[in-house]
Amino acid sequence: MEWVFTRAFVTFCGDSLRVVMGTVDFGPYALTERRIARLTLVLGGIASAGGCFLFSIRVGAGVMIGALLAWVNFRWLKSALDAVARAATAQVEPSKTRVPLASVFGLIGRYFLIAVSVYVIFVFFGIPVLSMLVGLCALGAATIGASLYEVFQSWD
Hints:
This protein has helices at 27-54, 57-90, 101-125, 129-136, 138-154, and strands spanning 2-4, 10-13, 16-19, 22-24. By secondary structure, the chain is mostly helical. It has a two-stranded antiparallel ribbon with strand order 1-4. A two-stranded antiparallel sheet has the order 2-3. The two termini are 26 Å apart.
């Protein structure tokens, strides 16, 4: 159980803002996050094998590189958002919430990392950009797959 601060727990009383803390079990969410991370790599590997078989080794490598970048992006996003949530819950008054600078860098810097990585890999190794973009889509496919799994699992 963790302490969580969300808008649902904020109660407006006259001119003052009173924060009510509640607890939420993050267990099922952490399981889904791990499932998305694993599926990103699995789907990227499958698509990479298909790209190698149908097109060329370079295309397959590009898809796998894109999937790895998507996985790194997901992990970095998760850690940055966890830090922002911890900062928000640790401070009582929401108007004076201070977000750690490293978290802001993590939220913005991941796009810079992907752009620079794709550029360097394209220029120095000749890996097709389109194949890396297809690999980056593995995160979206993994998220859809994990979401569908959660929906169909809840029917039981």
